[in-house]
Specification:
single chain; mainly beta; Immunoglobulin-like; 4 domains; 5-stranded mixed sheet; 26 strands
């Protein structure tokens, strides 16, 4: 078929965004509306008056030549047969003599791919370190972004935004053709450095098993782990320590979400079962172990012999008892103590027990 087309000077291009909803995948197919082409041709002066042009549209040249499978719905056309790019053939026949007076690929359909946006699905905001910046992982300066919170409020158009609270945040990327990516969301959970105080700690002092227990409910919103002694010690999930030697320790509570480490001094009281006052620099004095002003404001110790005779009174500022009474050494034997502990609220606590003074035969 040889056709001299009156439409050789006519050409129109349509661009649409891929409308695929399958994640970030695109198939190059979308909906086009080129229903205005007919009016452009009829009013464009391409045909002499009275020609009575009959305009029809086809997906390819073969169909246009054979006048089969004409595109009927030109306002809702999907380019499923030619993804990404397609030329639509226009055929114009004369209503006077059925002569073909226009024929050719005069419509170009272009599908613009959706931009892609990548973002972490989960994140943490430290309430003690605000605001927090969240952003896309594949930032592209050629794109703009549209952020919203869970209440559908616009938050910004950059590759990142600053937030001050937990919640669900969404973002879409927009390219130069105004094509939008499918939205991606990030769920932000709040965490915080532990609000560690003495009220959150329970210390049980006993000769058999000294323990420290931490109450996580009093620490805050974080996910915590615990260490005793050094800040770089091995941390454990259980808020409980047992079999602790009497002394003063530093207790560390670390937020697993990296919101910080809190610390507090903890005292574990102990009362030695014996001492050896021989001036060798070891166990020369008997005194309370692990007494801390963070737990008790004052302590008074009274030491008695087996007959109830008072041998020594001293307080927590003293070095302790050296095993003497009025300047004379007392013999090896068992001795008794009565200790009055005053807590931070001014409440007294009485502790009683006994210990041994040991001297070698030649002392």
């Amino acid at each position: 078929m040889s056709v001299t087309s009156a439409l050789d000077s006519f050409f129109v291009t349509y661009q649409q965004c891929d409308d695929t909803l399958d994640g970030d995948n695109t198939n190059g197919v979308t909906v086009f509306d080129f229903s205005d082409v007919k009016d452009q041709i009829l009013t464009g002066g391409y045909f002499p008056a009275g020609q009575q042009p009959i305009i029809s549209f086809y997906e390819n040249e073969a169909n246009a030549l054979e006048e089969k499978d004409r595109i009927v719905d030109v306002s809702n056309y999907r380019n499923t047969g030619s993804p990404n790019e397609q030329y639509i053939y226009i055929r114009v026949d004369s209503g006077l003599n059925n002569e073909c007076i226009g024929f050719g690929p005069y419509i170009k359909l272009t599908v613009n791919k959706m931009p892609k946006v990548q973002i972490d699905e989960l994140g943490v905001i430290c309430t003690n370190d605000l605001p927090k910046t969240i952003g896309v992982n594949n930032a592209n300066p050629m794109l703009t972004y549209k952020w919203k919170n869970q209440d559908d409020i616009d938050l910004g158009t950059g590759a990142s935004i600053e937030i001050n609270e937990e919640g669900v945040y969404s973002v879409v990327a927009i390219d130069e053709f105004l094509c939008e990516s499918n939205p991606k969301t990030i769920t932000i959970m709040a965490s915080e450095k532990a609000a560690l105080s003495i009220d959150a700690i329970t210390v049980v002092d006993s000769y058999k098993n000294n323990t420290i227990t931490i109450n996580p409910a009093l620490l805050g919103k974080g996910d915590y782990e615990y260490a005793l002694g050094e800040v770089d010690s091995d941390y454990q999930d259980e808020p409980y320590f047992e079999n602790i030697t009497p002394g003063i320790y530093m207790l560390y509570v670390r937020d697993k979400n990296l919101c910080g480490i809190a610390q507090i001094e903890v005292s574990v009281l102990g009362f030695p079962k014996f001492f050896t006052p021989n001036n060798d620099g070891f166990n020369d004095y008997w005194n309370i172990k692990g007494l801390s002003k963070s737990r008790y404001s004052k302590a008074t110790v009274s030491v008695f012999d087996r007959f109830g005779k008072l041998l020594k009174i001293f307080d927590d500022s003293d070095i302790g008892w050296d095993g003497s009474f009025k300047g004379r050494r007392v013999p090896s034997s068992d001795y008794w103590y009565v200790i009055t502990l005053i807590d931070l609220n001014g409440e007294p606590k009485i502790v009683k027990g006994n210990f041994s003074l040991i001297r070698h035969k030649n002392e």
